[in-house]
Amino acid sequence: MKKERGRRMTNDMTSGSPIKLIIRFMIPMCLGNIFQQFYNIADSIIAGQFLGVDALAAIGSTGSLIFLVTGWLNGLTSGFSIWVAQWFGAGKLDRMRHYIAMSVYICVGFVVVMTGGLLIANEPILRLMNSPEHLMGDISSYMAIIYAGLAVTCAYNALAGVLRALGDSKSPLYFLIISAVINVVLDIVFIVVFHMGVEGCGYATVIAQGISALLCFLYILKKFDVLKLKKEDFHFSMSTINKLLGLGIPMALQFSITAIGTIIVQGAINVYGAVSMAGFSAAGKIQNIICTVFVSFGATIATYVGQNRGAGKMDRVRKGVYLTQAMILVTSLIMMVLVHFFGEYLMLIFVKASETEVLKAAGIYFNTVVWAYPFLGSIFLYRNALQGMGYGLVPMMGGVFELVARAGIVFLVAGNTSFAGVCMADPAAWIAALIPLIPYYFWIMKKKENR
């Protein structure tokens, strides 16, 4: 009875209107992604307003590096949650719990190795990124704190991923809202009251993330009987580990390969100085918030496809992807108009109106990339649809295509042309990523239809 009661608390996406299920799941996901981004954004806003442009540039320049590190953990745990969604959709709850237990072993191992290795390699990595010498101390201290808190970052991603795999996208949102508010309060206390500088932003971020992970864990213990693990669930199985890694590693690599491309671009941007760094990073954060709807559609379709693939309902998979593509195209047009007309005003969140050169740099970036939003949104759709069906290699290859395109643009134009030339790396990467994804998706669906 407890198992059934726990199962009824989840959101079964294998029946009912696909568009209603997708939208109902996506909206909390979107809000949750916004609040998750808010950690680093809040740091940038408060640093920019109270500490100045150099502090904004220091924290902003870490965005691509943080994406590399946390993206690996996010991709890894997202891969694990696909298996959870598939076993849940198939109604095999014992297998689902066993896969969750094995993922705990993997997560602990990766966190230990990554934390130690990144703390040792902190400054060499920053020098490879052409970080300005006068900002090196602040950037290094901030990143060391972020690395030390990777355990709580991984814990939240893993726990929230399990909840979403079972169709619960609302609970992680509530916990993120709480921790985001705490993050802002701690930012102000550490920077304005205790004058801790950039390091205060790092401590605030880690503490807030730890609170969101703890809330997720306590909620699962109290509310979800189907997720209560037993001793036998932790019986070590190398075959299960291999299956988890078989999907988790390609998804982690896909995140990391994309992040490496953004690091290459950031390194090229750093050459243009603190003003361009500040404008580029602030504009990127605004774009990430606006386009988080694409990320949310992707995460939603991964859960939707995973559950329906597990239930053997490929007709619902096809229909869900088709409807989501239509919604992404409409959303892209709205975002393009929003950024074109209001992007400069949104920049005032980060810097004062008197910082005209920073605002100009941000405007150049927006004008260079805004037309390519439909391509960006489609990446998340087809990448996550394939991952939801259990295919990890080709989505990872999409990341490789992104990396090659970004690196190619940077090597061609960096130092030889304007700041706008480097900004073209993003649209080029978004278009390139779709080259393997779209044909492979339709080939897979045709293949399953023939069966």
UniProtKB/TrEMBL annotation:
CDD domains reported in the protein's UniProt record: MATE_yoeA_like (cd13138)
This protein's GO CC annotations: plasma membrane
Record's subcellular location: Cell membrane
Pfam assignment, any one: MatE
One Gene Ontology molecular-function label: xenobiotic transmembrane transporter activity
Membrane topology category: Multi-pass membrane protein
Keywords for the protein's UniProt record, in alphabetical order: Cell membrane, Membrane, Transmembrane, Transmembrane helix, Transport
Residues passing through the membrane, by range: 21-39, 59-87, 99-121, 141-166, 173-196, 202-221, 244-266, 286-305, 326-350, 362-382, 428-445
Main location: membrane
Domain of life per record: Bacteria
PANTHER family linked: MULTIDRUG RESISTANCE PROTEIN YPNP-RELATED
NCBIfam families, A to Z: matE
Protein name per the record: MATE efflux family protein
Source species: Blautia hansenii DSM 20583
Organism ancestry: Bacteria, Bacillati, Bacillota, Clostridia, Lachnospirales
